[in-house]
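Quick question about two entries, pasted in order.
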Amino acid sequence: MFKAIATSLLWLTSLPVCIYTLITYLFSYTLVLDHWSAGFVMMSLPFAMLGCFIIAFTWLFIRPARAILPILILALGYPFIKRTIVFKDPQRAANSLSVFSYNVFGFYGDNNNKEKAEKLMSYCIDYEADIKCFQEFYNVDDNENFQSLIPMLKENPHFISNKEKWNPGMMGLIIFSAYPIINRDGKTFGRSNANGYLMADIARKKDTIRVINIQLQSMGIRVNKVVSEMKGEDYEEAKKEGRGIISSLKRGFEQHSVEIETIERLINDSPYPIILCGDFNETPYGNAYGSIRDRLKNAFEESGNGFGFTLNRSPRIVRIDNQFCSESIKVLDFKTFSDVKLSDHYPILGRYEIGGVKEVKK
């Protein structure tokens, strides 16, 4: 009798989980709902798939025939597994182009640690790459102790930024290139100094490529603070922080939907092959990632290895920094340097083979 009741309850649990997982697929595959609430649903996709996996595994030992439904649903979500984990071997090419991207957290972060900032700056200067894209870059023109821009120009003498003059306290986007920049554009999103995009059309030998560096609205998630309050048994404060996270996520999803429309236009109107990189402040299951993925290839999915998590703070197990490229560009290798713990993000590097066709459309 007890076994029959337990089996019935498990089946009643299985159906809602399977249906919910299908809904997350619908939103993530089609981007059918342009509303902030869809962001919460899409963000939960890996947990829904994990629930399906647990249910399928359980049914295999109780009544194997009932495992067919969750297994089929998991099979439908296979492309999302590729967004989560891949195992690809790097390739080589004589004519490769390297693109380095890093959110440097203003070099000084929250603790104003000068020694750590100097190590971070030296790392960024010394790392050899044809193109370097930084988010939350910090420089003070009139203070030699905070002049991070000038040393960067030694190996990458061409640059654009979204600041005409760097003043104390200001962070922003910047692109350094070893090759000439023949056209440039940029925009700041909202009132933020850091969020926005930079676009550089770069002439490399016989090719011209469009490089776009972006940082979308931060979600402002303070998971570590919630955990700290819970450990201190201050549950009211933990609830307050939890509500703050939900509110920040809602604002972030709303803002991302507006920001990503601008980025889509840059991609659609480009006469050149594109490499896009930056801090999405969003997981690979969200609207921003999906919209860009409809137009460009993701470098991690094409040639990454492992999970590729890029956040060096709670919740850690997320990949929010990305590189994308046009179909005409081949991804040779993609790396996340998770051993470089100098910022609250990890740096990422993509190596590409550029085709030799200047214009991709008239």
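Here is the second entry:
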Amino acid sequence: MTPVEPQTLDPALVTGVAEMRLADAIFDGLVEEVPRGLEVVPALARSWEVSGDGREWTFHLREASWSDGGPLGAEDFVWSWGRAAGPGGGDYAYLFRVLAAVEAPDPRTLVVRLRHPCAYFLRLAAFTPFRPVPRRALEAHGETWLRPSNAVSSGPYLLAEWVLNRHILLRANPRWWGAAPGRPASPRVLSLTVESAATGFNLYETGEADLVTEVPAFLMDALRGREDLHLGDTLGTLFARLNVTRPPLDDPRVRRALGLALDREAICRRILRGGERPALSLVPPGIPGYEPPQGPGRDVDEARRLLGEAGYPGGRGLRRLDYVYNTGDANRDLAEVLQAQWREALGVEVALVHMEWKVYLDAMDRLDYDLARSSWIADYVDPSTFLDLFQTGAGNNRTGWSDPDYDALVSLAGRTPEGPARRTALRRAEARLLESAPVLPIHHYSTRNLHGPRVRGVEPNVRNLIALRGLAVE
């Protein structure tokens, strides 16, 4: 089930979790991260070697073809990665900065040279933006290359139907290299576009949906204890994003005051009710070897002092701020609580602005907002998946915030081998981010999956990674 109409299924351009889940079913990468244990396994690459200094990776590709019968080889990766990293690439273009060179000495060999050792490069290679796309289809059809009649796949599924605001239908790809009895696990997958979690729950209860990944907060108490409700910690954080290019949010004292006024405990206990934890860090707990620094908790007196020091005692003289959020009952409920908390604690007036998903993303990209509801789910199990976001110029920054010292620390961590020195650099970077407050962490996520025993292939994991290729309904 897709909570919003996908903006795109282009691997280089997708940003939402639901969109990536679909894109990962249509396109394969060099390797695949599987839900069970989050193990990285071969996909289009059948094997690989890495040099002693960790900077050169040689991937040996298997015999594979696109769904139109055309050969799929190393040059497809060279072209696709160049496209994703270039001016027309998406918000994840910054991830390709680690690459020094990508070469295809022959159709079955891909040589990747890194600028520096990267502790998580193999997980990057499994991530959606690193999956190749069919150059011939893009050049032949332009912006319409992902219409079902034009789409060309490399993964276990073909894009069979895309009915706007209704559903997306995937069918098994007979030319997939892994096609075999029982692979993929289901011959078709129907993803319903349902913006209301309550509507999604009703579809599940009436048997029209077999799996939902969002449950309305108002139903949590009634559902708790049901065997088909699956809760668990996940590596994700919901936060408020602040546009630091607009006064008064260009003043860190105002930003910190807004953060100190938040009652995160009340939000988790009274509003969410699904096991979510208050967040005082951007990086959630649970990443092996990393203990995130903690920002300040609720302190209304200090918040009022900072706001007065910035020239807005009791909120007087501070213009009304707009808080932008995308479609969803939970997003609206949270917005109303934040609005009330900022008014009651600081006298700050906040107007709530609801936007459809595509409009919401565009507003953030253009920095056409004051405050925005935002979230991040780990793309791989490493603190960098959260901290890389806020480097200067990163496509997912969307705050206008820039700090040379933060950039230097994140860059240092990126080229430092895994170990205490790398984790120290990451902690120092996160502490600097929390102090400057271009983002205000609110809560860490908990998974809320509803499915019965008939659904096979959902494996609990800290990324709530659900691979459609492994799902089946008995």
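Reply: The first strand starts at residue 31 and ends at 33. The mean pLDDT is 95. Hope that helps.
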